[in-house]
Amino acid sequence: GPLSIIIGVVHASLVSIVYKIVPDPYMDEIFHIGQTRRYCRGNYTWDPMITTPPGLYVLAVPLFCGRDRYLNSLFYPLLFLAACRFRSRFTRTSIGLSSLSAICLPVLLHSSVLFYTDPLSLLLTLLAFSLPPIPSSVFFLLSLTVRQTNIAWAFLYAASLLISSTRPSSIIRSSLASIPSLVPFIMIGLSFITFVYLNGGSIVLGDDSAHQPVLHLSQLLFFFLFSCLHIWPHIISLIPSIVSHALRPSNLPLLLMIIMALYSFYHTHPYLLADNRHVPFYLHRRIFSSTFLRLFLSVPVMLSISSLSLLSSSTPRFIRLLFLLSTAIILIPAHLLEFRYFITPFVILRLSLPTSSLFSSVLEFASNVIVFSFVFLLFLFKPYEWSHEPGVLQRFMW
């Protein structure tokens, strides 16, 4: 409708501002745009520095050679419609506003005005979740051509399909009945396993030296905090019940696990320490690098887990557990603390939550726009130089 057209126009205006102020490829764009330009010239050799598949570059070739960033302006209205469609599977309340808030998540919106893969990856994943099994499997397959980790979302869809069609009275028979609709997902799983095998046991395309998997349990906890900070208006009214939920004696083992994860399973990637152009660099320097401050985070983490479990209580428990498992599969092996990894799980989570009031939703949207604008303006108008790269402007972003 008209709103999605407005979204596209506003997005394209943001992109045109970025083109004026930052005309050259910036940060990861250097690889993405470089590869796309190569395709535009009919050269199909692969840059080994790129670690994700070429789905986005292939789409850019027909119409967007040299205007790469505008491709995301085409995806954004579609992303809004896909978000609305996905949300309507969970609730009938606040569909448009919640979807708008979700796609205005600052880290997503900021990545989307550059030639990054996040909007297309999210769009294909949301569409896949909103469709019946056969077309869904096609979209999941397409989403894997943009980002390999989307395999975890295909697993979530297939597992929830299997469980929801299983009847307690006849487990075997009802499971067998759902097999035809699971065949495409079994094929996706087998082809993914084949890809990993042929790729030498790694899911990373190209140079995997910077992407060795670790057990980064803290990353999952930071995701819970990140999610609650972005939906704070919906949490405020629930504070008393959240605190009493968190203080249950039965949660003590969970608290001890959180403390252990923050103490022993926080990893610092060389990129995190070396690159002061990102928010996590400063979070690490000011907070996470101190073991004491990091352990202190166990309290907000515990509160955020309670908040999310209360807010999502209307969603069936098995779906919540599968979501948690898929999110863990994506985040825990990731060595680098990177907010862009949180985008898809956050948007899926946000779109599934029933929202309490119109006022909270408006406040959430306003809060997202303000935070986005602040970082975006820093990115555009507060560049700086590194002493070892004089004359090259560095810009601050998520």
What do you see in this structure?
- The protein has two domains: 2-207, no CATH class; 217-352, no CATH class.
- It has 22 helices and two strands.
- It has helices at 2-21, 29-40, 55-60, 70-87, 95-103, 106-112, 118-129, 133-144, 151-164, 171-177, 179-198, 217-230, 232-236, 239-246, 252-264, 270-274, 279-288, 291-296, 298-311, 317-331, 343-352, 358-381, and strands at 384-386, 389-394.
- Helix 9 (151-164) runs antiparallel to helix 11.
- The longest helix has 24 residues, at 358-381.
- It is globular and about 65 Å long.
- Assign an overall shape: globular
Helix content: 55-70%
What is the subunit arrangement here? single chain
Tell me about the biggest sheet? 2 strands, antiparallel
Question: How would you summarize this macromolecular structure in one to three sentences?
Answer:
By secondary structure, the protein is mainly alpha-helical. The protein has 22 helices and 2 strands. It has 2 domains: 2-207, no CATH class; 217-352, no CATH class.
